[in-house]
């Protein structure tokens, strides 16, 4: 597959040039940011990036102009084992019936902002929004060798958010570590390039977020194994997920649960851990 080695390097062991850009951009104000290099588009940092020719691409504002050019010039992808955190709103149809469209927009905006903030704070990447679901990934090449532990920490932070934080919307969280294909996709008219993850690991994470009750995070045994941590003391469940023949073993994390296993390193240093 075209550029497979390049994409594997970026998301697997990590590409040193991209990691350096992420380190430089991570602490610069302010969101929103490029999904790939983390260049800020807002605040003083955004003005500085603009002066350097890095601003939101006019074809896809999720990426800076430089990264949009990169993914167009190097289409492709690779299989990488990474961790994923999905957050899915509960009862959004009912809420939409009860409030005005403007109020629903306010609540959803608060939800997206709060969830995305926790992903970024734990060295994760908000790669997509699918309906009411926020899709976050923790690739080793960007989040570091402890990507699974960081995903667990993100889940704990998410279930600890208050109703005021998330626009009074309830949501469930799914966390899984597995093999996925990550790479570029193009729109039907080739007008929008994006980076997406596909594969069974993605389906498992999505199913877990759907199965989690509001205020719960369901974390698969694969995540704990990858993190080198134990879920001892947490509620254990065996799930038969829709469309899957095998039972999945998960642990349930809720707000206030004690932290099992090893402590997570302070966020903000993920990429350097993989360098």
Topology of helices and strands:
Layout lengths: L3 H8 L4 H11 L16 H9 L13 H9 L3 E14 L1 H7 L2 H21 L3 E6 L2 E6 L1 H4 L3 H13 L10 E17 L6 E6 L1 H12 L4 E5 H7 L7 E5 L8 E7 L15 H5 L1
Parallel strand pairs: 4-6
Antiparallel strand pairs: 1-3, 1-4, 2-3, 4-5, 6-8, 7-8
Helix pairs in contact: 6-8, 8-10
Describe this structure as you would to a colleague.
- The chain is of the alpha+beta class and 275 residues long.
- It has helices at residues 4-11, 16-26, 43-51, 65-73, 92-98, 101-121, 140-143, 147-159, 200-211, 221-227, 270-274, and strands at 77-90, 125-130, 133-138, 170-186, 193-198, 216-220, 235-239, 248-254.
- Strands 1, 2, 3, 4, 5, 6, 7 and 8 form an eight-stranded mixed sheet that branches.
- β4 (170-186) and β5 (193-198) form a beta hairpin.
- α6 (101-121) packs antiparallel against α8 and α8 crosses α10.
- It is globular, with a radius of gyration of 18 Å.
- Residues 261-275 have low confidence and may be disordered.
Provide key terms for this protein.
8 strands; 275 residues; 11 helices; eight-stranded mixed beta sheet; disordered C terminus; 24% strand; alpha+beta; 39% helix
Put the structure in a nutshell.
With 275 residues, this protein is of the alpha+beta class. The chain contains 11 helices and 8 strands.
Number of strands: 8
Helix proportion range: 25-40%
Shape descriptor = globular
Number of helices: 11
Report the biggest beta sheet as strand number plus sense, adding barrel if it closes. 8 strands, mixed
Radius of gyration, in angstroms, nearest whole number? 18 Å
Low-pLDDT segments, ≥5 res:
261-275
Strand content: 15-25%
Q: Roughly how many Å apart are the termini?
A: 25 Å
Taken in chain order, the helices and strands follow as HHHHEHHEEHHEEHEHEEH
**Category from helices, strands and their pairing:** alpha+beta
For the residues shown, what is the average pLDDT? 89
């Amino acid at each position: 597959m075209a550029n497979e080695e390049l994409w594997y390097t970026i998301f697997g062991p990590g590409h040193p040039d991209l990691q350096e850009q992420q380190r430089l951009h991570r602490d610069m104000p302010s969101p929103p940011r490029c999904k790939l290099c983390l260049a800020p588009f807002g605040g003083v940092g955004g003005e500085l990036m603009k002066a350097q020719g890095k601003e939101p691409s006019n074809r896809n504002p999720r990426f800076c102009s430089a990264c949009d050019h990169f993914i167009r010039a190097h289409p492709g992808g690779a299989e990488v084992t990474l961790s994923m955190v999905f957050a899915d709103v509960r009862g959004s149809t009912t809420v939409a019936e009860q409030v005005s469209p403007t109020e629903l927009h306010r609540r959803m905006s608060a939800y997206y902002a709060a969830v995305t903030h926790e992903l970024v704070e734990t060295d994760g990447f908000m790669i997509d929004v699918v309906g009411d679901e926020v899709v976050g990934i923790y690739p080793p090449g960007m989040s570091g060798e402890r990507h699974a532990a960081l995903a667990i920490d993100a889940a704990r932070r998410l279930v600890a958010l208050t109703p005021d934080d998330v626009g009074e919307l309830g949501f469930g969280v799914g966390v899984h570590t597995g093999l996925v294909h990550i790479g570029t996709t193009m729109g039907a008219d080739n007008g929008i390039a994006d980076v997406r993850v596909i594969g069974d690991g993605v389906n498992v994470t999505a199913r877990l977020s759907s199965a989690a009750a509001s205020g719960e995070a369901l974390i698969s045994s694969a995540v704990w194994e990858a993190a080198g941590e134990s879920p001892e003391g947490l509620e254990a469940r065996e799930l038969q997920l829709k469309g899957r023949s095998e039972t999945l073993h998960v642990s349930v994390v809720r707000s206030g649960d004690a932290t099992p296993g090893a402590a997570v390193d302070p966020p903000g240093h993920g990429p350097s851990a993989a360098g």
